[in-house]
Design brief:
The protein has five helices and no strands. The chain has 209 residues and is an all-alpha fold. Helix 1 crosses helix 3. It starts with 41 loop residues before the first helix and ends with a helix.
């Protein structure tokens, strides 16, 4: 008997559709391509450039560079002829200084670009923070205005005192008015003490008659 083939084995196309190229599988990540140029981390290279640019802008670098140049010139002027490696006019020294300048300028520009990017991000964050602060200030201003309008309708101590004084004055006036009406009453009057004419019964007039 011929053993059965595994059902999961891939079949190779035959005939006109046959091809020696393997088909890329979508369920697996693509293998990384080989690059001829060396790879580096842009962030790490940027941090290194900032350190170099920061060192180039210090007085320590100027002092060390001045010392190296002085030693270079003194050695190549006063040293024996066999030990001199850069005779006058110091062409090798000029080449080294030019090489240093050619590398220092791009590094300084790269550091400045990174600083500009950080400043742009900081400015954007500051702008958003200012917008939020302005919105909060406007909200608080509206709330304070609403509270002041609400407090304008609340009864204050002076207003309550004035109202109580008005009520007391009105009560005193009524009491004085009651006393004057009760003085005209009596046995010969139209009513008893403290009785207003409007409070008398309708049949009293006919009885008096």
């Amino acid at each position: 008997m011929v053993p059965e083939r595994d059902a999961t084995r891939e079949r190779t196309p035959s005939g006109a559709t046959a091809s020696t190229r393997t088909r890329a599988r979508l369920d697996q990540p693509r293998a990384p391509r080989r690059r001829l140029l060396p790879e580096w981390d842009p962030e790490a290279f940027g941090r290194l450039s900032e350190r170099i640019a920061r060192f180039l802008g210090t007085g320590r670098f100027i002092v060390w560079m001045t010392i190296v140049i002085i030693l270079w010139v003194v050695w190549n002027v006063f040293a024996p002829s066999g030990l001199r490696f850069d005779n006058y006019p110091f062409i090798f020294l000029t080449l080294m200084l030019s090489l240093q300048a050619s590398y220092a300028a791009p590094l300084i520009l790269l550091a400045q670009n990174r600083q500009d990017d950080r400043d742009r991000v900081n400015l954007e964050q500051d702008r958003k923070q200012n917008e939020r602060s302005i919105a909060d200030t406007e909200y608080l201003t509206r709330e304070i205005a609403a509270l002041r309008m609400g407090l304008g309708e609340v009864a204050t101590r002076d207003w309550i005192r004035s109202e109580l004084q008005d009520v007391l004055k009105e009560l005193e006036d009524r009491r004085d008015g009651h006393g004057s009406h009760s003085g005209h009453g009596g046995p010969g009057g139209h009513g008893g003490p403290g009785v207003f004419p409007a409070d008398r019964s309708p049949g009293r007039d006919t009885d008096d008659r």
